[in-house]
Specification:
CATH superfamily of the largest domain: Tetracycline Repressor, domain 2
Number of domains: 2
CATH architecture of the largest domain: Orthogonal Bundle
Distance between the termini: 72 Å
Structural class: mainly alpha
Shape: globular
Helix content: over 70%
Order of helices and strands: HHHHHHHHHH
Length: 207
């Protein structure tokens, strides 16, 4: 029995040692994806470079090519990476909604000046939306899944009080409105845009 236990421990140790490089590589890959996402949010895809991404990741530029073949290669995966994080965050927020009114409150906060100022920490969809328009079919398909998931969650949390059309219009107003509010130079105009969007949210116009 002692020999059997020792063999099991040795075997487990070998498995662990074999898995460590893979785990380290995945952690490094995720680190690059996180840095790429932050950089794309700050500077846009066109304004970002491999050197800047790797500097943000705290790694050498040469290490980039051990994970990705080009900047365009990392774009699609960074989108998917961000969607997973956003989906988890939204799932947590929606899980606390018990009434349609609470759902409306979440969307009101989404269109707040505070969220507008949080480009890096906020939702990744508005700052990356224009790049997504030029993304490959696989990335667009993943994004479509996220939108479909959002619609289904909104309908479920509101007991189907909001129609699919109203929810899609609300999402479009939130993503587009936040992007527009961030694009102008005037803080006053930015606040006016956000206020106008909050007042026009389709999901709060239901009786």
């Amino acid at each position: 029995m002692a020999n059997a236990w020792n063999n099991t421990r040795l075997s487990g140790k070998r498995v662990l040692q074999m898995n460590q490089p893979t785990d380290r590589k995945q952690r490094s890959r995720n680190k690059i994806l996180d840095a790429a996402l932050r950089t794309f949010k700050q500077q846009g895809y066109v304004g970002s470079g491999v050197d800047g991404i790797m500097e943000a990741a705290g790694m050498t530029s040469g290490a980039f090519y051990g994970h990705f073949s080009s900047k365009s290669d990392v774009l699609g995966e960074a989108f998917v990476h961000s969607f997973i994080e956003d989906q988890a965050a939204m799932n947590g927020a929606l899980s606390e909604c018990e009434t349609p009114e609470q759902l409306i409150e979440i969307m009101q906060k989404y269109l707040s000046s505070k969220h507008c100022e949080q480009v890096e920490e906020g939702c990744s969809i508005p700052p990356l939306l224009s790049d997504l328009c030029r993304a490959d079919a696989e990335t667009k398909a993943r994004f479509e899944e996220v939108i479909q998931w959002m619609v289904a969650q909104f309908q479920e949390r509101s007991d189907n009080e909001f129609s699919r059309q109203e929810i899609l219009a609300t999402l479009a107003l939130c993503f587009g409105g936040l992007s527009l509010a961030r694009a102008v130079n005037s803080p006053a105009l930015s606040r006016q845009i956000l206020s106008a969007c909050r007042k026009q949210l389709p999901i709060q116009k239901c009786d």
